[in-house]
Design brief:
The protein is mostly helical and 58 residues long. The chain contains two helices and no strands.
């Protein structure tokens, strides 16, 4: 059961962690933290756009 949980939730958890990191970095940091925030928030946006524009047939 543990492997099923990891297989299903691995990528949503990674995207959530990236989003939280990006938002916190934008709020609390300056300089390089803003660049890291942009990078961290771009990845989930690109993934969402990819699956919205080109859905998989599962």
């Amino acid at each position: 059961m543990n492997s099923v949980f990891i297989r299903v939730w691995k990528y949503p958890i990674i995207l959530a962690v990236l989003t939280v990191f990006g938002l916190l970095a934008a709020l609390m940091g300056t300089g390089i933290w803003h660049v890291l925030s942009w990078l961290a928030l771009t990845i989930p946006a690109v993934v969402c756009l990819r699956y919205a524009l080109f859905p998989t047939s599962r």
